[in-house]
Write a structure and sequence with these properties.
ribosomal protein; Large ribosomal subunit protein uL6; 38% strand; ribonucleoprotein; 179 residues; 4-stranded antiparallel β-sheet; alpha+beta; elongated; 2 helices; 3-stranded antiparallel β-sheet; single chain
Length: 179
């Protein structure tokens, strides 16, 4: 049995879980998330815990068992505490401004880039070189962070660009300025 899949998912107080066939909806203080899970995998609620069960030991069911448990656990965590990604902007003149629709990014191009945040994701900038992305869905928060980072990935010579907080950019030596 999957080691991850067989662990029960604790449901904290203030979170309600509705299971309708293969659809699971989780409501909590940070919002509401719903997802249609694979039809073979069964999610059941017993008291303040959710259990994920698989019908057989087929390879496909084993793979889906742990995945489904992790997806549901992320939904529960998202509606209780939420998820957060922090991006750092490095470079002369590189900055981010928060607008009502999302973010206005100056990343060294001849124009500024407008990034529209999807619904359920909040973008804030505590200072012009830091962007904080928060939301209930781990997928959406990670996708928005990846899209903003892809606008100007950190380059290896000077390290300019957008990177995740704590990301290490491998630096390269420039041209050897010898004779």
């Amino acid at each position: 049995m999957s080691r991850i899949g067989k662990r029960p998912i604790p449901v904290p107080a203030g979170v309600t879980v509705a299971i309708d066939g293969s659809a699971v909806t989780v409501k909590g203080p940070k919002g509401e998330l719903s997802r249609v899970l694979p039809a073979d995998i069964v999610v059941s609620q017993e008291g303040a815990e959710l259990l994920v069960k698989r019908p057989s030991d087929e390879e496909r069911h084993k793979a889906l068992h742990g995945l489904t448990r992790t997806l549901v656990a992320n939904m529960v965590e998202g509606v209780t505490t939420g998820f957060k990604r922090v991006l750092e902007i490095t470079g002369v003149g590189y900055k981010a401004e928060i607008k009502p629709y999302g973010a206005l990014l100056s990343l060294g191009f001849s124009h500024q880039i407008e990034y529209k945040a999807p619904q359920g994701v909040q973008i804030t900038a505590p200072n012009p070189t830091t962007v904080v992305i928060e939301g209930a869905s781990k997928e959406h928060v990670g996708q928005v962070a990846a899209e903003i980072r892809s606008l100007r990935k950190p380059e290896p010579y000077k390290g300019k660009g957008v990177k995740y907080q704590g990301e290490v950019v491998r630096r390269k030596a420039g041209k050897a300025g010898g004779k």
